Amino acid sequence: MSMIIGLTGGIGSGKSAAANHFATEHGIHVVDADLKSRVVVEPGKPALAHIVDRFGDDILLPDGNLDRAALRQRIFSDADERIWLESLLHPLIREETLRDLNSATSPYVLLVSPLLIESGQHHLTSRVIVVDVPEALQLARTATRDQVSEDQVKAIMQAQSQREARLSQAHDIITNDRDLAHLHEQVNTLHQQYLAMLQEKNP
């Protein structure tokens, strides 16, 4: 298996933009835990049936897919429901994630997850990158991008690690408080750093 680098950050921090640059510019295999969380609740999957049993049919869209916005509203207003959902989905997401990580052929592989620390996924990684952004900017970006209220964004932020806790787990930090070019520059630097580390390990 390739060396695994974890990449995390709060909602609206710019994780996807950073991961996308690792992939498109440097050919790094990216495993996105958020995408895995969608796969495990596709129609016909057992997890979706459990969610419908718990929350009722109104948690589904007319086409039978999970109404993620409705589910998000339910779980972020009730901590017990969020804990129940996480205990159902986290083992399934982990299984899907490991399968994808094992298939990587790039020099290292990026595991992108908003809950990298909270879910324990960081134990799979050799290093952790945190994409960091001031909370006021995080709030404004997410409310605009997702067309949701600032209160809902705050609830999601509450459920994720607090900024200081995330940063305390970081080996590397990407500061995303400027433009995309600045973000890309930091990604390029880290990529070279990781290649150098791999070279040292396997001369």
From TrEMBL:
Enzyme Commission no: 2.7.1.24
Keywords in alphabetical order: ATP-binding, Coenzyme A biosynthesis, Cytoplasm, Kinase, Nucleotide-binding, Transferase
Catalytic activity reported: 3'-dephospho-CoA + ATP = ADP + CoA + H(+)
Database matches in CDD domains: DPCK
Transmembrane spans: none
Keyword Cytoplasm: yes
SUPFAM superfamilies: P-loop containing nucleoside triphosphate hydrolases
Pathway(s) where this gene product acts: Cofactor biosynthesis; coenzyme A biosynthesis; CoA from (R)-pantothenate: step 5/5
Pfam families, sorted: CoaE
Gene3D superfamilies assigned to the protein according to its UniProt record, in alphabetical order: P-loop containing nucleotide triphosphate hydrolases (3.40.50.300)
GO molecular function terms listed in the Swiss-Prot or TrEMBL record: dephospho-CoA kinase activity
Superkingdom in the source lineage: Bacteria
Binding positions for ATP per the UniProt entry: 12-17
Family classification: Belongs to the CoaE family.
Name listed for the protein in its UniProt record: Dephospho-CoA kinase
Gene that produces this protein: coaE
